[in-house]
Design a protein that fits this description.
The protein contains 20 helices and seven strands. A three-stranded antiparallel β-sheet has the order 1-7-6. It has a two-stranded antiparallel sheet with strand order 2-3. The protein has a two-stranded antiparallel sheet with strand order 4-5. Helix 1 packs antiparallel against helix 8 and helix 1 runs parallel beside helix 14. It is globular, with a radius of gyration of 23 Å. The protein binds NADPH dihydro-nicotinamide-adenine-dinucleotide phosphate. NADPH dihydro-nicotinamide-adenine-dinucleotide phosphate (NDP) binds next to helix 16, strand 7, helix 18 and helix 19. NADPH dihydro-nicotinamide-adenine-dinucleotide phosphate binds next to helix 16, strand 7, helix 18 and helix 19.
Length: about 475
């Protein structure tokens, strides 16, 4: 919720116990100040293995027709050595470096220098300058929301090129996929390292920085909360949305073009993946102002997790279904295709309506109607670092009365639909649903830990009123 919408009732100084049972110190909310051994072990594991996991998946498609077991079998039986696989891997090329630099520069230009005009003619769309949530230090950042416009311009140019100008082939992304992976990694590591240095030497807001003293944890989870260059270049908003999410639909289009080139047709499974993921991406940009109130922007600091994740993990692993379908052009029977479409749309509906209900509830401070009735809620309070006390509300109506994270449940149903579109011949396209289940379950736990420290006994009242997390009656 934006700071101006919250009732700032009292100025109470730091480190006094609050009425809701929480401590008003900096340990109260936001990411950890101290690192336990499990978090550290997980972080070291991810820093070491996440880049290898991405490489393994992409290489498996390139060299083994998307089989995840064949490379391992080859290595274990001595049929191949690591060096054989590595030597067959395409290297960084000048062409890929040029494409990638142009791509990122173009997105920076759209982000920084083209103020939003979509909100002037699209009814219901919220764009232009918007406020983020109040940070732990009590700061409210302003953002230029112009992602929808960037997405539209980029895709109009893509189609104009594909059907009219023919400056480059629409298969360009697929054709340079591994050389582009090296470029994405260079940017991912560069931006994460820069963010770390910036956090130490020239932070945008020193009060919102967190140092655990553990180099690896700080590098991974970030020091600065909202690093910026100048007034408007916000690292979190830029790197997550573009190049990450604008690229998602372009990458899928490139896969569809490759299917057309290789087989003379685009299969219905490829169309389903393009359409369902396209809806998800468009939804993200249509609701970019809402995104300012999600955990990524409100609670996560900017480190390798977001920087490298947005540059490499997201564009490479979220698009695995389309990549798989280039190698295995699955044509679904009508009943299966309709089933996948329905599952995807139901998942999207739950995801969107749940997120919308919370957004509406928070924007109107509870003065709205959810499913035709005045929403029920639990009153709660918390403190920012400077000791200011704020009041908030946790809704228990609509989908938020069914489970505490029903938006995640919708997201998971949609994710499952993308995977099912690929049939059952290989495990690789199912990576997405496995990963999303781990990500969102972990996110539930992480978020609830934070909310519990933030709201204290008020959070306990809420969890008593809504006892399940994802599936009513089960979990
Ligand atoms: P939420 O939008 O669910 O936000 C959680 C926050 O909402 C809590 O920290 C709390 O914040 C507030 N809140 C919790 N319960 C209530 C309630 N009952 N009433 C009012 N406010 C409440 O989580 P995310 O930001 O993680 O996710 C947003 C969406 O993005 C989800 O639909 C998720 O599926 C999707 N997502 C997708 C990812 C992907 O990679 N595809 C990754 C992550 C998320 P406060 O402190 O303000 O009270």
């Amino acid at each position: 919720m934006a700071a101006h919408q919250e009732k700032k009732l009292a100025q109470e100084r730091k480190h006094k116990p609050s009425q809701n049972g929480t401590q008003t110190s900096q340990v109260q909310w936001g990411r950890a100040w101290e690192v336990d051994w499990f978090s550290l072990a997980s972080i070291l594991f991810l820093l070491l293995f996440a880049p290898l996991i991405v490489y393994y998946f992409i290489m498996s498609c390139d060299q083994y027709q998307c089989s995840l077991t064949e490379p391992l079998r080859d290595l274990l039986t001595g049929n191949k050595h690591l060096s054989d696989i590595w030597n067959k891997t395409p290297t960084l090329t000048y062409r890929a470096a040029g494409i990638y630099c142009l791509w990122v520069t173009f997105q920076v230009v759209l982000y920084m220098f083209v103020p939003d005009f979509c909100h002037k003619f699209l009814p219901g769309y919220v764009g232009g300058v918007q406020e983020g949530a109040v940070t732990p230090a009590g700061v409210v950042n302003k953002y230029e929301i112009n992602g929808l416009q960037a997405w539209i311009i980029t895709h109009v140019l893509w189609f104009a090129n594909a059907y009219y100008f023919h400056f480059f082939s629409p298969t360009i992304i697929f054709d340079n996929w591994i050389p582009l992976l090296w470029c994405a990694n260079i940017l991912g590591y560069a931006v994460s390292t820069f963010a770390m240095i910036k956090g130490y030497f020239f932070p945008t807001n020193a009060k919102d920085c967190k140092f655990t003293g553990n180099f690896f944890y700080d590098y991974m989870m970030g020091i600065e909360f909202n690093p910026r260059i100048g007034r408007w270049f916000d690292f979190k908003l830029f790197f997550n949305g573009r190049p990450g999410i604008v690229a998602w639909t372009l990458i899928n289009l490139s896969y569809a073009a490759k299917q057309q080139e290789l087989y003379g047709q685009v299969t219905n499974s490829m169309i389903l993946v393009n359409v369902l993921q396209g809806i998800y991406v468009l939804d993200f940009f249509w609701n970019e102002a809402w995104y300012l109130k999600t955990i990524d922007i409100c609670h996560d600091h900017f480190g390798w997790y977001l920087g490298w994740g947005d540059c490499v993990w997201l564009p490479y692993l979220y698009t695995l279904q389309g990549l798989y379908l280039v190698y295995h052009p699955v044509q679904l029977g009508t009943a299966n295709a309709v089933g996948v479409l329905m599952l995807g749309l139901i998942g999207y509906y739950i995801f969107r309506v749940t997120n919308h209900q919370k957004d509406l509830f928070r924007r109107t401070n509870g003065n709205c109607r959810i499913w035709g009735r005045k929403p029920e809620y639990i009153e709660c309070s918390y403190m920012s670092v400077d000791g200011t006390k704020y009041y908030s509300k946790l809704m228990t109506s609509g989908f938020w009365g069914w489970a505490r994270h029903f938006n995640y449940t919708g997201d998971l149903l949609g994710s499952l639909a993308y995977c099912l579109a690929c049939g059952f011949a290989h495990i690789l396209p199912y990576f997405y649903i496995i990963y999303m289940t781990i990500l969102l379950t972990h996110r539930c736990i992480r978020d609830e830990h934070r909310c519990s420290s933030k709201y204290g006994k008020d959070w306990k009242h809420y969890t008593a009123a809504v006892p399940y997390r994802l599936i009513p009656g089960v979990f």
